[in-house]
Specification:
Farnesyl Diphosphate Synthase; mainly alpha
């Protein structure tokens, strides 16, 4: 089966962001070495690097230069990785695997995993501080707002509170918008900010990022039902077993697939003002809803 265009684009961008990440994170031998090994273990465990890729492509789309977006792109990947480390902890989603490898708390220990997440979150904002000085305030507002209690962290809290209760459409949409879509939207926004987008471009790309983020999470919910553990790189069926509030739990599988397609179409419509210049982002969007892992 041929490699999807979106995955090819992500792979090419991933190599560039990983070189920047390598320069940004402490070496494995730097003390405290166990902590730095744990941070590196999770940061370099694989993954699609979707969030930094979105930032890089949004910056390119509005005429920005790659060197001005890399600090923001690295920041976003560090925040995402910290969130995965903490999500997998026994007190959270309690998962033993991530990206086909033992979760950080299994490869090291629970306390080290907590600190590795803390270290990556803190390093993320240290790295963001190396973005062009005139852009840093807007970037901090966009990224921190999406990552905090009004965004990803708040979505995780709602996700935990929703376990084993009766899931409602309103709860599922709240969790999706906060836990996943917020940081994906901020990734696109950060790229637009680094490219010095005008207000119209920023608004349009924000719409794209919001709908892409929602489509991504609906697709993720579907994969938890339809994919194998080997394909996912984490425990399949965990959402249903944990009583999570997901789209399939509320609407069923067929309607969930239609919702993912509807959100993807909205995201693609948001890109129309950019014409063919947005083809890379279109390819990413198409990959997001058709991926198998």
């Amino acid at each position: 089966m041929p490699t999807p265009p979106g995955l090819k684009i992500l792979s090419a961008l991933s190599r560039r962001i990983e070189r920047f990440l390598e320069k940004s994170i402490p070496a494995a031998a730097e003390e405290p070495a166990r902590l730095h090994r744990a941070m590196r273990y999770s940061l370099f465990a694989g993954g699609k690097r979707l969030r930094p890729a979105l930032a890089m492509l949004a910056c390119e789309l509005v005429g920005g230069r790659e060197k001005e977006v890399m600090a923001a792109a690295a920041c976003l990947e560090m925040i995402h990785t910290y969130s995965l480390i903490h999500d997998d902890l026994p007190a959270m989603d309690d998962d033993d695997f991530r990206r086909g490898k033992p979760s950080c708390h299994r490869a090291f220990d629970e306390a080290t995993a907590i600190l590795a997440g803390d270290g990556l979150l803190t390093l993320a904002f240290e790295t963001l501080g190396r973005a062009p000085a005139d852009l840093v305030p807007a970037l901090v507002v966009a990224v921190a707002g999406a990552a905090g209690s009004r965004g990803m962290v708040g979505g995780q809290q709602a996700d935990l509170e929703g376990e084993h209760g009766k899931p409602t459409p309103a709860l599922v949409r709240f969790i999706h918008r906060k836990k996943t879509a917020a940081l994906l939207r901020a990734s696109v926004q950060a790229g637009a900010i680094c490219g010095r987008a005008d207000s119209g471009e920023l608004d349009t790309l924000t719409q794209f990022g919001e709908n892409l983020g929602l489509a991504f999470q609906v697709a993720d919910d579907i994969l938890d039902v339809t994919a194998t553990t080997e394909k996912l790189g984490k425990t399949a069926g965990k959402d249903a077993a944990s009583g999570k509030a997901t789209y399939p739990a509320v609407f069923g599988l067929d309607r969930s697939k239609r919702e993912a397609a509807r959100l993807a179409a909205r995201a693609l419509r948001a890109l129309e003002p950019f014409g063919r210049k947005a083809d890379k982002l279109r390819a990413i969007m198409n990959f997001v809803v058709s991926r198998e892992s």
